[in-house]
């Protein structure tokens, strides 16, 4: 490379005047330079002072950046530049040139000003472009002088001339002399500029901070940040992202793409998305105490696939800056700014202001949200306190959840009384319509507290949030169903009263706050507990009414007997058998015609048994419709059959630890017989429609007026059941076979009905007694009782002297028929035997046969002799 002349190399030794002039110029320049504060002043000074004296075109000051070993123009003398119309001129603005090339190295190596003929250097390999541009603009020579600060080069002053060889020694010497002052002027300018910038930054930050201090809403924040960015002469876009409640994702909070036009689809996608924090970019920003500058292409090349990065690439963003926003030690989010240059302190200042504003807004939002939630819960609680029935609750829940919280109720299940199974309590059958499943049917599936997800919910403190997408991935079978609602989460929450789990509630929503969840659960729990208690209360009330009716009915009859009347041998046998069996648990079968006192005997056995403290329970198998017998005996669950509105205990359960009296057992339908047999064998039962087995301890007494053996033969009664029942049979004699018991029974019933009706009957005439004794009583004791009851009502003057015996009974017809076929003697003989029988063989005296027959005792004796009547006849 051919260098131009060094200082002093050209021309002769300067003349005295030249030296003086030079000194003067130097002095003036030096004086002026000390006053220079602004870079414009400096270049103006140069133009003014030097141009008039020396033939130069223009000057430029370039500054070195040692960090990246480059230099570039700092001050231009644009006005005087002869190359300003050159097409390449504008390109030189802001351009940096390397220090690592021979041309500039030679400048740096030179001790003082050094000049170059452009033509010689401009096309050398690596020569800076400005040389050629200047040449093409008519410049021929350049004089470059290093500017030093504490011996270290800080830049150059380049003087240009449109003619070669114009830089005289004098001029070089001036430049050499002026260089130190120029250096310090430049340093001052830089410092000044820095100071001014700092001042500007300060006032900017101050302004920004007072602006942002008034920010209360997201919109105000957006406006304030935009203004600030604009003031920094950045029309760039930015996004403030906030960390979501899940702490694992971030979503755009304030979003402003600047002035550029963008594809609206991309913009929408960017605005709505939420991004995982750990995407290799956001996490880096959050972890970094200083702002980070990223290059979109480079990050993508590094393998990052964050969707927003790809969108930014598509939108033409090149570089962006990421800076975290935090409140104290807590990260709130970050700011991404589309920017080329980075002024770290300024940005940090801006961001700390944004952070404060963001924290304030968030706190504000939280407060107003809390207030809203509290107001909501208050309303909800008001609504729910009115709730008494399931329908009320459903209305309250659906209105509030759906309309106010955009939340759907999927299902409420309550834990059954067994503490294990769970029954659907309430659900929205339309919720999973899109899944094309019959939710109503599905909800009927048996669920227990051990079911996987239910157990998880019941064990949780405040419920479980199932993110539907994640559940899908983990193979949760319900997630497919949940997904069809289009909502993001499924919430399973325990319903509790105190510490007791009473059920679960399942809801679907995008987001629900913990406060709301807790509130809703507590309220619904109480409401459900109330409803259940209410239902139970009603059921109990009903049950009590039924039991009460039943007991009343029982009490009516239970104290009906104070004793069993009758001393006939056949009755004595009955008493013996009763006393033998009463103490045990043995099943007793009481046989006998209708009205012979079978129930009376059954009660007497019960009352003589260890179970006497509990009421005997009676079922009349003939009085029940066939389809209700089973439910009557074994009870039923709610909904077991049409009309089973409530749960009902069966007579077996009612008779637990007592005696169950199965009256008219012969009338029991076959189907019920087999069920009865099972219960007798196993001593346990299941309610109709129930799943639980219930153990019972019941003593059985059955009664029938049928001949069960014949019923078995005819296939109407199960043989096995017969054998089970016929463990200890007691047969009651018909009344007609124990005529002697008739009179005591008459007195017994007269006393009872006198008392009941308030009519005091003092006497029953012998005629009446005789009439009754001679009657056959097909209805046995019950018939006698009814006859007396009626007669008591009809009696006058306290004397029962008439009974209304039915005339046309079959027995009478039979007797009449027999009588018609007999001789008079035979009739007389039969009649006397009969009367004797009824008078227990007593012939004369009061109540004797002679009195009844209204003949003297002697006459009767002789008649008996004549007719051959012996004791054997009337005592048989
Ligand atoms: N020995 C008795 N002493 C007093 N009262 C009796 C006697 N036998 C029966 N009765 C009365 O006669 C009525 C009918 O008796 P009960 O109902 O026990 O007969 P039953 O054999 O069970 O009749 P059914 O076969 O029609 O059910 C009852 O009012 C009962 O109190």
From TrEMBL:
Keyword Cell inner membrane: no
Domain of life: Bacteria
Molecular function terms, GO-annotated: ATP binding; sequence-specific DNA binding
SMART domains in alphabetical order: AAA, GAF
GO biological process: regulation of DNA-templated transcription
Domain Sigma-54 factor interaction residues, every copy: 564-793
Keywords in alphabetical order: Activator, ATP-binding, DNA-binding, Nucleotide-binding, Transcription, Transcription regulation
Keyword Nucleotidyltransferase tagged: no
The protein, known as: Fis family transcriptional regulator
Organism: Niastella vici
